[in-house]
Specification:
alpha+beta; 14 strands; single chain; 7 helices
């Protein structure tokens, strides 16, 4: 099998700006991308005669585009999207990039390499991804908003794995999940992880799973609060102006390290394996991965879009995406089992991407050896 390094872009924009994304993709000669919907969660000021002014939560639908480029093109493409979509203006969207590798099948006799170099990004940014029971995602999003971190994005999915093997008790753990993704400074990541674990009760059985991952480049929407503006410039505009003057975002570290935070044992140096395949094939492939040692995954739906060679037309097809965080020792048997099960054949249309996960936490790590992914699924 062939291992190929790449830069994985994730671009989240509000609907009015979505048509500009397609033009930017063409200009960068990016031949394919994936599109799904998510909810952007922001705080909003509400006034009433009875309660006066209070904070509430506002949800907006955003379009989330993901695509890959060679690492050597990352900076050029990153700058192009910021300029052409005006992402340095608040309230438009966010963009971030992760270092990753793809695994490509090269024939019947090809084998999974023992060593896959997953470089860690030299950056001041980290991503946090939390999987929680559906209906509880707002708890995680609100905890992040209360600390002024960023605009969280909330996705929908279905969990599978440990829950499927729990017998009758599984009926107490909903299969439907919400996945919350947010980008923070590396300095604030550890403290925020503890805050989100407390907010979502992730240290209790079946409540959820959380992990962080390195981000090589990021520009995050600063419009996390909508309310009365009494000055000539909004807080987001002021933040962006200072970022430009300072040349970075180090000045806005929030030192999120609560003195009373609990000492928790995090799992370290894991791998995030992302499987993409044709619609209605993910569950079958997940069963294969579980038989090879994976504990489970979260399955979500996306649209794969491919440009024609002349970039004038786009063909679209539904796909399913399975996300599992595993120990490196599980990677080879899982990928080998998937290959034998026909994951890379045209009938399944599978592709594999692997990223680094720095830390992970769930309740089950306290009681059982952690051999694989998403114990809360």
């Amino acid at each position: 099998m062939k291992v190929k390094k790449l830069s994985k872009f994730t671009l989240s924009v509000y609907r009015p700006f979505s048509p500009h994304v397609i033009e930017a993709l063409k200009e960068c000669s990016i031949g394919e991308f994936y599109l799904e919907q998510a909810r952007a969660i922001v705080s909003v000021e509400k006034k009433s005669l009875l309660f006066g002014t209070r904070k509430d939560i506002l949800e907006n639908i955003i379009d989330v585009y993901s695509f890959n480029t060679p690492p050597e093109s990352e900076n050029i493409v990153f700058s192009h999207f910021i300029k052409n979509l005006g992402l340095n203006q608040e309230g438009r969207g966010s963009i971030f990039v992760e270092p990753a590798v793809s695994i490509e099948d090269t024939g019947m006799n090809s084998s999974v390499p023992d060593d896959i170099p997953l470089g860690t990004a030299k950056t001041k940014w980290m991503g946090i991804y939390c999987i929680i029971q559906r209906g509880r995602g707002e708890l995680i999003a609100k905890a992040a908003l209360d600390h002024g971190i960023c605009v969280p994005a909330v996705y929908y999915g279905v969990g599978g794995g440990v829950r499927d093997r729990m017998g009758l008790i599984r009926i107490t753990i909903p299969a439907e999940k919400e996945m919350i993704n947010l980008i923070v400074t590396e300095h604030d990541c550890q403290g925020l992880l503890n805050i989100l674990i407390d907010a979502g009760n992730l240290d209790r059985p079946g409540m959820g799973f959380i992990f962080d991952y390195p981000v090589s480049s990021a520009l995050i929407d600063t419009r996390s609060y909508i309310g009365t503006n009494m000055s000539a410039a909004s807080s987001g505009q002021i933040i962006n102006a200072i970022d430009e003057i300072k040349g970075n975002s180090d000045w806005r570290k929030r030192h999120i390290n609560p003195l009373n935070s609990k000492k928790r044992k995090f799992l370290n140096d894991l791998e995030d394996i992302i499987l993409t395949c044709k619609d209605e094939k993910a569950r079958e492939m997940l069963n294969v991965a579980m038989s090879a040692g994976a504990a489970g995954a979260t399955i979500s739906h996306s649209i794969k879009a491919v440009f024609s060679p002349d970039l004038k037309t786009i063909s679209k097809s539904p796909v399913e995406v399975s996300d599992m965080v595993v120990d490196s020792s599980v990677r080879k048997p899982v990928i080998s089992a998937l290959k034998q099960a026909g994951f890379f054949t045209p009938e399944v249309g599978g592709s594999i991407m692997i990223k680094k996960s720095v830390r992970a936490f769930s309740y089950f790590e306290k009681r059982t050896p952690y051999s694989s992914s998403n114990p809360s699924s």
